[in-house]
Write a structure and sequence with these properties.
The complex is a heterodimer of chains A (about 190) and B (about 280).
Chain A (H helix, E strand, L loop, with lengths): L4 E4 L4 H6 L5 E10 L2 H13 L11 E3 L27 H5 L5 E4 L5 H10 L2 E4 L5 H5 L2 E8 L8 E15 L6 H9 L4
Parallel strand pairs in A: 1-2, 2-3, 3-4, 4-5
Antiparallel strand pairs in A: 2-7, 5-7, 6-7
Chain B lengths: L1 E4 H17 L3 H13 L3 H20 L9 E9 L2 E4 L3 H15 L23 E7 L4 E8 L1 H4 L3 E5 L4 H16 L7 E9 L1 H11 L11 H15 L14 E11 L4 E8 L6 E4 L1
Parallel strand pairs in B: 1-3, 2-4, 7-8
Antiparallel strand pairs in B: 2-5, 5-10, 6-9, 7-9
Classes of the chains: A alpha/beta (about 190), B alpha/beta (about 280).
Chain lengths: ~190, ~280
């Protein structure tokens, strides 16, 4: 197995075009966190034509609701949450320039189509590896919606965050391809 | 008659909430190590390696294995010769959950109302299952149940004519359509028989059984093994990225049912299958 590709965020169109389903990556730079409630608020602003509290251009959103940080720590456990819950909001955020998402689990056909249209990528991280992934986070601060508690939008500075490309802009889908490769009764 | 002070129940419940979230049980560690040996997909092996490393960090740093520290499902077995003193037993369990989640820096994920969805702020209330048993002991098992796997669980009232084939088909459909979402490799709890709620409870209780143990009834043990092999042929693999280890185990429990019913419940659990038990 080849070494993971090291990527510095934010993402560009050129970089997104190079990524293929199944590529292992290590992400370094700034991630934004957002879950269900934050997505709902962001999409409501987009629909009203009001500027967003964060600039999504070139950004990667990590679907995570961390556990509380112990005193002296940057963050608690912070593994990915199920991405499919955010599907209905995602195309609107991609239209605002969002270039990537990190989560776990299936995306809807609409999101997969929107990835091609807006040139963005869906990464999977290991679900349940919250303790391990917390060590990749060097800084965390709330940048929007502090009233949402664990669902507030945070800016995370990450170093070598491990992820895998699940859906690329070329129609690649690791969930489909990986399963097909290893299924015994196809 | 033996007496037990409620404060002991509060302390034990609180400790179990924390430990269940920080400590991967030895049987689960062994199952994941076995899975890493067995897995042929390099990506799958890499995922299993990350999970084992995650477990080492969690226990050492007292940080939760997963950020979704769950809604606490608590099984309590009360010996009928035991007298509880110093307050309400149910309140003691609830208080134990509150204290455990607060003191342990565990995420509070419980909302007070399924429609209005305002967080209770202390992860209470838990879901408690009581059982009265012979003896004078109190046994408490805490199972923090995260949404990723619980959301992919399913129940169906089959027709008796659908029989074993219908049961197998439903289990297969549930695991197959869940795919990567419930964080495989999974432990699959199956409850068969009883009524609607009994089947669901059997499936959840089956998740408490140590990995590597089998149903004591030989033909059900064989069915568990057949289902494990059968589900691993799906190719879903660790985290759904493709591979031969989709389930670590299938645990099946049965109960008598009605001539006209065949309830089957499938309760999925992620690879961590978190739980911790104490006897007071």
């Amino acid at each position: 197995m080849s070494d993971p590709r090291r990527i510095t965020l934010p993402l560009t169109d050129e970089l997104v075009a190079e990524l293929r389903a199944g590529d292992r990556v290590r992400l370094s730079g700034t991630l934004l966190t957002a879950r269900d409630a934050a997505h709902k608020k962001l999409v409501a602003l987009i629909e009203q034509g009001v500027p967003l509290p964060v600039d999504l251009n070139g950004q990667v959103v990590y679907y995570v609701g961390p556990s509380p940080a112990r005193p002296g720590r940057v963050i608690g456990a912070c593994g990915p949450t199920t991405a499919g819950r955010l599907d209905s909001y995602t195309p609107a955020l991609l239209a605002q320039g969002l270039k990537g998402m990190i989560g776990k689990g299936f995306r809807s056909p609409e999101v997969i189509t929107a990835l091609k249209e807006y040139r963005a990528v869906y990464f999977g991280a290991v679900g349940g590896a919250g303790a391990l992934l917390s060590r990749c986070v060097q800084a965390a601060r709330v940048v929007a919606y502090p009233e949402l508690g664990p669902e507030a939008v945070h800016e995370l500075i990450v170093v070598d965050f491990p992820a895998v490309v699940i859906n690329d802009i070329h129609g690649g889908d690791l969930y489909r391809e990986g399963r097909r490769q290893y299924a015994v009764n196809k | 008659m033996r007496t037990l002070d409620c404060e002991k129940v509060v302390e034990a419940t609180s400790r179990l909430c924390r430990e269940a979230n920080y400590v991967l049980e030895p049987d689960v560690v062994a199952a994941l190590e076995g899975a890493r040996q067995e897995e042929v997909s390099p990506t799958g092996k890499d995922v299993l390696g990350q999970l084992l490393e995650n477990a080492r960090i969690a226990v050492r740093e007292e940080i939760p294995l997963c950020q979704d520290t769950g809604i606490a499902v608590v099984f309590v077995e009360v010996g009928q010769d035991l007298r509880i003193v110093g307050g309400s037993l149910e309140e003691a369990v609830v208080r134990g959950v509150r204290e455990g989640y607060e003191q342990g820096y565990l995420r509070k994920s419980v909302v007070a109302d399924p429609l209005n969805r305002v967080n209770t702020g202390d992860n209470s209330p838990p879901v408690i299952h009581w059982r009265l048993v012979p003896g004078d002991r109190l046994k408490i098992s805490v199972m923090p149940k995260g949404a990723g796997s619980e959301n992919m669980s399913a129940l169906k009232m089959l027709k008796p004519a659908e029989g074993l084939d219908g049961v197998k088909r439903f289990i297969l459909e549930t695991v197959s359509s869940a795919g990567p979402n419930p964080c495989p490799p999974l432990v699959v709890g199956v409850g068969l028989g009883g009524t609607m709620e009994k089947a669901a409870l059997l499936a959840k209780e089956a998740l408490l059984r140590p990995l590597g143990t089998r149903n004591p009834v030989a033909e059900l043990a064989e069915l568990e093994e057949n289902l494990r092999v059968f589900l691993n042929e799906l190719g879903i693999g660790p985290m759904g990225l493709g591979g031969r280890v989709t389930v670590l185990a299938v645990h099946l429990s049965t109960y008598p049912t009605h001539i006209a019913m065949l309830p089957v419940a499938v309760n999925l659990n992620c690879h961590a299958v978190r739980h911790k038990t104490a006897v007071l």
